[in-house]
Amino acid sequence: MTETFSDLQLCPWIVRQLGTVGITTPTAVQVNCIPQILAGKDVIGVAKTGSGKTLAFALPILHMLAEEPYGIFAVIVTPTRELAFQIRDSFAIIGKCMNLRQSVVVGGLDMIAQSQELARKPHIVIGTPGRLSDHLNSCDTFHFKKIKFLVLDEADKLLGGYFDSDMKSIFSAVPENRQTLLFSATMTDTLDKVKQVAKNDMFLWQQSNQVKTVEQLHGYLVETLRKFNTKDDGGSIIIFTDTCKNCQLLSMTLNIIGFKNVALHNMMRQSERLASLHRFKSNHVTLLVATDLASRGLDIPLVELIINYAVPVTIKDYIHRVGRTARAGKTGYAITLVTPNEIQLLKDIEDGINTKLLEFTIKSKDVAKIFTQISVTKGECEIKLEECKFFEKKEIYKKKKLILEGKDPDLQEKILKRLKEEKKKKKEQKHKKQKTE
């Protein structure tokens, strides 16, 4: 069994640099995928979050870049800005001794500055599909025609349908003889699309015996809701989440897959919170997805079921949450979804309330049937949520900045729109001229 990075035939300087940051033992995804990448194969790596997938592609890319440094060597596509910057940091840490040049191409940053960076031909380009596609369609100061690697991180989300138009632009801009590396926590039915994307000999590695992750909790949650929805006694359900973002994300996902609900969290306006609460209390909607904002002060007699989507951090929080059910002499239930790393929290709660909680069984085969749909839907909702927040904040910031500069935001928007149209016409004329020649 491989025990060190040296056994993977990586450059000695990479092994040394890994050692300086305390990384000495490769993970399973690294052991299985790095040799195949170095051998020139297309690779699909499926492993849970936190398993070392980023280094599984970053290390062989840096190894081969050191042997043949030139222009834009690798393009890495990821669905979110946060992931793009995380990947940049991983490359920077390991590649610091080789004068590595990188460019992060994501929304929210100045496009002109990004174009100038791309024109300088950085070794590594990391970006989100929309912004990469924008540059490819509007800028002729760079190209991806000679890249060695195309990496799709979170490939299931990138190939799940939401980014199809942008991904098509990216695929058409890269050479056929590149290596394609795809990594994800889940692949499911997108494997068929992945096979179409890969051009060379493909190696597929999937982590076996994965424990239940947060991703899979959605499946168990849906099956739990289905079991209780078969009853028709007018009972309501509250699902408690740990953060405002997770609350909104879960609410959006459940609405799309058919569980009508309202959300309740601190990032909503007061009027929105009151409207959600009114709809729930009046029984127009029988499912509420909430943070601990709803764990105190609510008197809703018909709450039949409380679901802790995230294990409460304290015993006090648990008591307040489950106290929302079994009120006014009614029967109630409380179910807590638990991942392996939350078992100790659950034991602490059991000790605190001096009660051994019973296991509520959900068949894994039932979850497996719906997992793909839920995973894809959740991924699409994550992207929509990020875009919604980003564009709202971006527009507010831009308008404030223009006003402070003494400019009319509406007039500036019209000027920008006209410039884009002129640029598009020039590009079309250039293409027509090239075709006639």
From TrEMBL:
SUPFAM superfamilies: P-loop containing nucleoside triphosphate hydrolases (SSF52540). InterPro entries: DEAD/DEAH_box_helicase_dom, DEAD_box_RNA_helicase, Helicase_ATP-bd, Helicase_C-like, P-loop_NTPase, RNA-helicase_DEAD-box_CS, RNA_helicase_DEAD_Q_motif. CDD domains: DEADc_DDX49, SF2_C_DEAD. Residues 213-368 form the Helicase C-terminal domain. A motif (Q motif) lies at residues 3-31. Residues 3-31 form the DEAD-box RNA helicase Q domain. Its EC number is 3.6.4.13. Keywords: ATP-binding, Helicase, Hydrolase, Nucleotide-binding. One of its GO terms (cellular component) is cytosol. GO terms for biological process: regulation of gene expression. GO terms for molecular function: ATP binding; hydrolase activity; nucleic acid binding; RNA helicase activity. PANTHER family: ATP-DEPENDENT RNA HELICASE, ATP-DEPENDENT RNA HELICASE RHLE-RELATED. Belongs to the DEAD box helicase family. This is RNA helicase. It comes from Rhynocoris fuscipes.
